[in-house]
């Protein structure tokens, strides 16, 4: 059974930092490209960024609103994905979801965690 | 930047009726990269359709996807009570993903 479990959310002041974790099991994490998607309260889904597998170079891509402030990394020995968020803004308030990219044909996001809430407020 | 526009914003139907949800891209895209998700309140999104027309594992056959170029459609042939939710289309763009703004399917 596949499990995806995000953690690390909470309340942080504008300008602060937070590190989210995503623990996974049930699929071959070291081969998986992984993404973060967020959802502001009452709003739609917004892609945050992606990290490729180390075998594909391990490189990252980010959405424009978070580029230069957020950083995605991975620890394949622990099957865990991370999202380091710096210089947080009130508009970063959202539920953050961790997902895997299922294949390199359709590139869809198959397994989603339950999300972790990040609130940026003074 | 490719923009996905979903319509209608809200669709009010009764159980048993047919639902047709639209997703329009601002420029022609590969149907291989078009995905649909369902999201219920308080839950994570769930994968429904990938590659524009392929049902994900465990998705009932009343759900179907179609389309090409700029126009894509999610059809629910006969609505069940558990189908009332928000539906998002999504596009993979090589180095990014983009989502439509969602269609809320509500009980009439």
The helix-and-strand class of chain A reads mainly beta
| Count of helical stretches of chain A | 0
Q: Round the Cα radius of gyration of chain A to an integer and report it.
A: 14 Å
Number of DSSP-assigned strands of chain A = 11
Which oligomeric state applies?
Answer: heterodimer
What is the N-to-C succession of helices and strands of chain B?
Answer: EEEEEEEEEE
Number of DSSP strand runs of chain B: 10
Distance between the termini of chain B: 36 Å
Give the terminus-to-terminus CA distance of chain A.
40 Å
How does the major sheet of chain B shape up?
A: 7 strands, mixed
Description:
The complex is a heterodimer of chains A (122) and B (108). Chain A is mainly β. Helices cover 0% and strands 51% of the residues of chain A. Chain A is built from no helices and eleven strands. Chain A has strands spanning 3-7, 10-12, 18-25, 33-39, 45-51, 60-62, 70-75, 80-85, 94-101, 109-112, 116-120. In chain B, strands 2, 4, 5, 6, 8, 9 and 10 form a seven-stranded mixed sheet that branches. Chain B has a three-stranded antiparallel sheet with strand order 1-3-7, with no helix packed on it. Chain B has no helices and ten strands. Chain B is mostly beta strands and 108 residues long. The chains are: A mainly beta (122), B mainly beta (108). The interface between A and B is medium-sized, with 21 and 25 residues.
């Amino acid at each position: 059974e596949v499990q995806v479990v995000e953690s690390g959310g909470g309340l942080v002041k504008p300008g602060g930092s937070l590190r989210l974790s995503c623990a996974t099991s049930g699929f071959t994490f070291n081969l998986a490209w992984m993404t973060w998607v967020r959802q502001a309260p009452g709003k739609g889904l917004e892609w945050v960024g992606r990290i490729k597998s180390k075998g594909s170079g391990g490189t990252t891509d980010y959405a424009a609103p978070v580029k230069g402030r957020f950083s995605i990394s991975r620890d394949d020995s622990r099957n865990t994905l991370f999202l380091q968020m710096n210089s947080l803004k009130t508009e970063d308030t959202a539920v953050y979801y961790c997902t895997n990219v299922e294949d390199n044909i359709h590139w869809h996001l198959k397994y989603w965690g339950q999300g972790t809430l990040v609130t940026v407020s003074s | 930047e490719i923009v996905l526009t979903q319509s209608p914003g809200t669709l009010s139907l009764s159980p048993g009726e047919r639902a047709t949800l639209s997703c329009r891209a601002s420029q022609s895209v590969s149907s291989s990269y078009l995905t649909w998700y369902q999201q219920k309140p308080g839950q994570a999104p769930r994968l429904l359709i990938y590659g524009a027309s392929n049902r994900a594992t465990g998705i009932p056959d009343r759900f179907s996807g179609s389309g090409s170029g700029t126009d894509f459609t999610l059809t629910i042939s006969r609505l069940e009570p558990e189908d009332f939710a928000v539906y998002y289309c999504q596009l993979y763009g090589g180095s990014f993903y983009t989502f439509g703004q969602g269609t809320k399917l509500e009980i009439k």
